Every structure is written in C-alpha cells, then in structure tokens.
C-alpha cells in the first residue's frame, strides 16, 4: 500500500514530464524518495547570495528544488552538468532555461520549481550570478552522497 501511494505521489509530481522518473538515458534513480530542497536567493551589496551555501542531496535521485528569489534583479543558477543530458525532469514558475549558461534564470523576486535527477556521488560547484554583476558570482557547493538504505 505504501509503495502504491509513493508511486502515485511521484506520478502526480512529475506530471507533464512523461517517463521522467524512468528516463532511459539515466536509468532508474537510486531511491524512490523525492526530497524537497529550498534555495533562497538574496542580494548583498548588489551581488547574489544563495542559501544554503552547501546543498546536501542524495546522488542519482530525483529531487525537487524550490527556488525563491528575494533579489530585485534576475539571477542565473548554474551547476556543471546538472541541467544537461536529461537530468532536468521538469521546470515551472518564474524560471527560464539559459542554454548558453546551461542553467536557469530566475526572474526578479521570482519563484519556481526544478525537478531534477542529481548527478553521481561527489562534490560539485553551483553558482548564482546576477545578470548585472557577471563578474561577481556566488559559488556554493553541492554535496551528493549515496542515498541511505
């Protein structure tokens, strides 16, 4: 019964991205969990600051990233490889895909949701860059660990 409820919840959450949970390019996720994580963007001295500075997530797992910007300028979120090769399952809200940057731009004071399959275990950098301050990006760390049991 519990597995049926989890499967139904995931199907509902991933509606609009048919087959995303079992992306043939990525294979099956390491876990059926869909942990939500909030990423908050603010400005300090006109430069973007993202919190948390260190994001800890299960590796090779579908996650839901809730993005909340309190910045009054657009900010681009990047993470090498994370928004490529089928890792992005669904995006909605005030988010615009930026192909040249391989990331997403969040509108000023915007909100949105990114559902994605995390990369393999390891440490990766992620960045937040204000479109008017490209020379001063915020760089954070994404720590991906093998999912528990």
What does this structure look like?
By secondary structure, the protein is mostly beta strands. The strands form two sheets. Strands 3-11-10-5-8-7 form a six-stranded mixed β-sheet, with no helix packed on it. Strands 2-1-4-9-6 form a five-stranded mixed β-sheet, with no helix packed on it. Residues 1-21 have low confidence and may be disordered. It is 8% helix and 47% strand.
Notable characteristics:
149 residues, six-stranded mixed beta sheet, five-stranded mixed beta sheet, 1 helix, 47% strand
Mean pLDDT: 80
Identify the strand order in the major beta sheet. Answer: 3-11-10-5-8-7
Task: Give Rg in angstroms.
Answer: 15 Å
Poorly predicted regions: 1-21
Helix tally equals 1
Number of strands: 11
- Portion of residues in helices? under 10%
Which structural class is indicated by helix and strand composition?
Answer: mainly beta
Task: Write the element-wise H/E pattern from the N-terminal end onward.
Answer: HEEEEEEEEEEE
Question: How much β-strand is present in the residues?
Answer: over 45%
N-end to C-end Cα span: 20 Å
Q: For the report, how would you describe the main beta sheet?
A: 6 strands, mixed
Overall geometry comes to: globular
């Amino acid at each position: 019964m519990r597995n049926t409820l989890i499967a139904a919840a995931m199907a509902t959450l991933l509606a609009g991205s048919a087959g995303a949970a079992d992306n043939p390019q990525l294979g099956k996720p390491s876990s059926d969990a869909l942990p939500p994580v909030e990423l908050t963007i603010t400005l300090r001295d006109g430069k973007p600051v993202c919190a948390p500075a260190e994001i800890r997530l299960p590796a090779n797992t579908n996650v839901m990233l809730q993005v909340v910007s309190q910045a009054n300028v657009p900010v681009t979120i990047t993470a090498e490889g994370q928004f490529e090769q089928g890792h992005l399952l669904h995006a909605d809200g005030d988010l615009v895909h930026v192909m040249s940057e391989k990331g997403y731009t969040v509108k000023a004071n915007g909100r949105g949701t990114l559902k994605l399959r995390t990369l393999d275990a390891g440490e990766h950098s992620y960045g937040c860059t204000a479109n008017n301050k490209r020379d001063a990006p915020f760089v954070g760390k994404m720590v991906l660990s093998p999912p528990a049991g």
